[in-house]
Amino acid sequence: MAHRVSARLLTVALSALALASCAALVPPTSAPDEVEPAEPQSALEAGFTAGPPIHGLMLGAVDARTALASFVESCPQLLSRDDRSGLTRTVDWQPACADARTWPADNAAAFFDYHLETVQVGDGRAFATGYFEPQIAGCRNRQPGCEVPVYGVPDDLVRAWSDSVPVEERDGQAPLGRLNEAGEHVLYHDRATIEAGALAGRGLEIAWAADPIEMFFLQIQGSGRLITDDGEVIRIGYAGQNGREYVAIGRVMREQGLLGDGPGQYVSSMQGIVQYLRDNPEEGQSLMQRNKSWIFFRELLGDGPLGALGVPVRRESSVAADPRFVPLGAPVWLDLDRPEADGLWVAQDTGGAIKGANRFDTFWGAGDDARVIAGGMSARGNALLLLPKGTLARLRTAKLNP
User: Are the CB atoms for 146 and 137 separated by under 8 Å?
Assistant: First the structure.
């Protein structure tokens, strides 16, 4: 996702030296010519098996009704987008989408049982976190106490290949960056540089926030609400990213022994991370700047934050997933060790940290309870995809007759 150059290469080189110094102390775990298996890059590579019948899942009435409403909103995209997972085709979804809009909401569970079947991708073992729509203090125009810029997408953020990358290695989408004075494509400004004023004075501010820590976490969530002193609500949503690498500061804190349940440690949750940042402002700023990713926003005028699918995400109904393994718009059944996250969701979003088969991020809406639930959500269990009936048989036939 990010375009690495010299700083990244230096890090890699130092890491290699560190590994080399330890090589004599660590016995090899495999034969020299043994190659580690590559991580699967799609649901087809991960493998798939049939799951249990949908009526055996015992869908709750409310759960099924809200999932059906989200599925209806997803259908226009299901019928027009290519499925990166390779599991479904647009034509597969036509019967379900044709019926979904007029299906009685009070019998929504029957809709899923009639039109869909369950499919397990890989081993089905799921890990789910949570996200929410933050509400933080903000203003439309800069004023004392409200001076953290909320930037729109800059016009010098472009995709291109650096001349240092050979043509034969230019695979996939070109990386994000900017053109320097010499016309060379280089990395875009990172968080520290932007906070130091790299984008100031260019008229990119669409609003302002009062608290840099709250704004940092709003960027991680990807959307949120700015509440002004006079009660105006400015809803902002993801518009772009600077192409720099995302670093989870919670992971860094755990590695440094700052999070845990021991003496002097902070609670291992978003709330504990925020408390550390407030208690240690200088160290906290340096920690946040280790996450070089910066999110650009646009003002939203709809009734909810938009997910990657282009439709509003809904509380306890929308989930972010990796589109290489889950068709965006497809229902997902989660059976986890956190009961509040159990049930039927619809994959309508993606996330920088949501990578791999059976990795999900559950959406909890806005408000104090949403913040608490999402901030502490870390659940494991099992996942099933709900796909159009006949999908599994077609995939098996295609596998036997490539």
Answer: yes
Strand partners, 117: 387
Residues 6+ apart with CB under 8 A from 157: 176, 177, 178, 188, 240, 242, 243, 296
CA distance 329 to 318: 9
Q: Tell which of 198, 230, 254 closes a domain.
A: 198
Q: Do the domain assignments include residue 386?
A: yes
Condensed to tens digits (0 to 9), the pLDDT of residues 109-165 reads 999 999 999 999 999 999 999 988 889 999 999 999 999 999 999 999 999 988 878
Cβ contact 320:347 at 8 Å = yes
Q: Which domain holds residue 185?
A: 155-198
Question: Structure pTM?
Answer: 0.71
Residue 167 and residue 121 share a domain? no
How far apart, in whole angstroms, are the C-alpha atoms of residue 361 and residue 358? 10
Counting the structural domains of the chain, the total is 2
Give the whole-angstrom CA distance, residue 245 versus residue 294.
9
Angle at 101 between CA 95 and CA 105, to 5 degrees: 115
pLDDT at 402 (0 to 100): 63
